[in-house]
Amino acid sequence: MGIETTLDGRQDKEYCELPKETNHSRSKKSRRRQKKSATVQNLFQTCKEVFASGATGFIPPPADVERLRLVLDRMKPEDVGLNPEMPYFRPKVNKGLPKITYLHLHECEKFSIGIFCLPPSGVIPLHNHPGMTVFSKLLFGTMHIKSYDWTADVPHDPPTNLHPSQGYAVEPSRVKLAKVKVDSDFTAPCNTSILYPAAGGNMHCFTAITACAVLDVLGPPYSDPDGRHCTYYLDFPCPSLSGNGQSDAEEKKEVYAWLQEREKPDELDVVGALYRGPKLVEN
Hints:
- The chain is an alpha+beta fold.
- A six-stranded mixed sheet has the order 7-4-9-2-1-12, covered by helices on one side.
- The termini are far apart.
- 27% of the residues are buried.
- The N terminus is likely disordered.
């Protein structure tokens, strides 16, 4: 083979000893570390400024939304010390959904920063973000995202023909109509997705097609005492609605579903792990 041929006739000492690290190489490594640290610190500082007035229902001004989006759009896996070969992303060998790992970077009453690490086939079930603005940056991998927003301007009758799903009985009085916002595959690098308290796909489900890492910024974060409780949902397809005043062409663009609250899925297994990437300074 080529490598073995290259080594023939060389002195063993040359290839058994590791090359000594020079001042130049140490300097290059230091600059790389400083650059990564500066990237994470910039994210933290931008979040701190954008969500300075954060509270339930707060939506940052458009200029601030764009500023934070640009910071996230430029971020790469190596900026937070991640790569697809890490143990978090290994495929599950037995049956059932794989474990999802959450890396905590920061949380305060105004915002939180964290990373979800999903192995192939990992699923974060359909859930909401009450009164929150959320930025999600896919750092690597391919993921299917399906999201909904509640709809109140489409006349409809309560459903009567829904079938049980995942062991849950359908309760027509408890279902609500929602409109599909997104139902697509995304592959990194791609733009940061943004959802708002009542728009942008506030309720979403993530399904990892390959190993994925998603950097999430929540403003403000979940808080039961403040009424920001995470609610999970079942979704039931809804046929095209009639009598809503839309033309056939317009109606085909809209997809609806009935959503019903459910308990946190037993199969959802999210564990915390220590974030080992560049540290941020909480100044």
